[in-house]
Amino acid sequence: MTVKKFLDNFEEYFCVWTMAIMTVLVFIQVVMRYIFSNSLSWSEELARFIFLWLSWIGASYAVKERSHFRVEMFANMMKGEKRRIFEYFILIIWFVFSFVLAWLGSELVLFIHESEQASAAMDIPMTWPYASVPVGCALMCVRLMIEMYKIYKGAPVGAEAKRQELEEMV
Length: 170
Prior knowledge:
Layout: H1 3-34, H2 43-65, H3 80-115, H4 127-130, H5 132-152, H6 159-169
């Protein structure tokens, strides 16, 4: 199994399983609260932490799927090589932003680890939920480098890429 295939499978399975676990936790919490009139003290906090991980790993997976929201009005005015350069430039800016977020997020995680901060209900180290930011952003950086490499190698961008995706679906 290649690194890319492992990364594809990891992100996809991680998102599916965390969504399923979070849904079950919230369902159990609702049942406990409204049927048994007794709520679990830890389920909401755990669901929140799982949601953090789901969001950041999902953001990385969305880079691969080209599923992030984009405003393409300005980009659609460009054709050919200008569009390719513009897309490359956007990916570089996005990469720098993700890298800075991963770097600063890592510093924050280290600070929280040193302060030994724990969660209120489950008493787990707060480094675990906060670690979702640098891990997700680092994975996003990897995905963005892959996308930059595709553009460098001549992969279609913009309307050409959309047309090719539609043809592959049919």
